[in-house]
Amino acid sequence: MYKKTLTVTLMLGLMFATACSSGGGSATPAPGKDATAKPADAKPADAKPDQKKGKLVFWDKSEYVKDYNDFQKERVAQFSKEFNIDVEYVAIPPADVKTKLLAAVEAGNPPDLLLADDFVAKQFVGNNQLVEITDILKQFDFREDSKTYAYAMEGWYEIPAYHSPNVMYVRKDKLEEKNLQPPKTWDDVKNVAKAINDPKNNFYGLGFQLGGGGDSEGRINNLIRTFGTDLVNKDGKVTINTPEALAAIKYDASFFQENLVPQGAVTGDDAYNNNVWLAGQVGIVFNSSSIYAAMKKDKPELLEKTLILPWPAGPKRQFGSGGGTAFVMFSKAKNTEAAKQYIKYFFDKDYYGKLLEKLNGLGGPVLNGMENTPFWQKPENKAWFDATRNIVPLGDPAPPDARASQVISENILSKGVQKIVVNKMDPQKALDEIEKDYKKIYDKK
């Protein structure tokens, strides 16, 4: 989930690049344009509907970049036609994926194929819920760092699909108005936010949220670690209850207590920061390149006013941030063979390369050699590619297992800070409850 410290080279590249999740809905795909040449072993394309050889249920997360899901629908329709398989393609907002999956798994009716955030996928590794995929990993030339984030203590159950690096977005024009330097530390972030905060004119220093999801959990996790505390150590022991962690959650709560965020931020989800940034309502957010892609397509004037920077340093350390998206297949699914067939179809280099271009940096390639393509050699895109390097295992430095995923999925950190902000809970008591909730998961035998 979280990446190691960004290099100075990347920092400069991101700062001066003039160029840098999630809508929702579900759809049954309709035939679209060909994305790649027809494979040699493709099935007849003129089969009648009643001659379809089985059905594939494919759940995908809906990305903030709408072109992604549209392009996937075209590919799925082509797959259905060429391989004579019925496909039900459903795009689900990331915030809803876990709930829908839990219900489907409990009912014994999971999708045949899931493409989701790594921290969601890993939660289903235990209890023999997923299909082991070593055979598929051997068929493609995956980057070693891609396989690192896909690995779990229990074994190989995820096929990496793309990396998603995160950065800090800052309104350059607001800095210039106040003669401020770009923020490099968390203290800088707060001081800049205070200086540019203008609630009377519906402009706020920060676009942070507390409604749960990878964005708010990632921000608070990063803040705690940069203050000097690892939430769980390398042996899986919960180590979060420290004076440094207490200072960190109080610091995060202060963003909301001091009205540096818009109304609604306390319950905002992963799409919240995208929306308030693109509305021109806030001065600083942390996000993937989904914001960059949206600005590049629809708001070039806002992009001109934007600085793209690494995550800030804390009093003790600095960490970058990023995640991965992966395929998984469920052991109780009805058509695993069709799912495996689609994964191979997905990684056709021509199609896969075009799909990543649609994501405009939101998705970095997981296959070796793709960094040499014209798209990734462009300076603004190369910076995003560099930001995908050195992704550390989920929950770092804790063991990369389903527990690391579950603590994120349950929004423990976000709920803890919410209690301080909304319920006026004593911060130490909130931290005690965070520790207790972490131990419920990590101390399971």
From TrEMBL:
Q: Where is the composition biased (Low complexity)?
A: 24-39
Q: Where is this region: Disordered?
A: 24-49
Q: Which Gene3D superfamilies match?
A: Periplasmic binding protein-like II
**Keyword tags:** Signal, Transport
Give the InterPro entries listed for this entry.
Bact_solute-bd_prot1 (IPR050490), SBP (IPR006059)
**Carries keyword Signal?**
yes
Ranges of Basic and acidic residues compositional bias?
40-49
Q: What residue stretch is flagged as signal peptide?
A: 1-19
The record's similarity note reads: Belongs to the bacterial solute-binding protein 1 family.
This protein is called: Extracellular solute-binding protein
Organism from which the protein derives: Paenibacillus piri
Task: Output the lineage of the source organism.
Answer: Bacteria, Bacillati, Bacillota, Bacilli, Bacillales
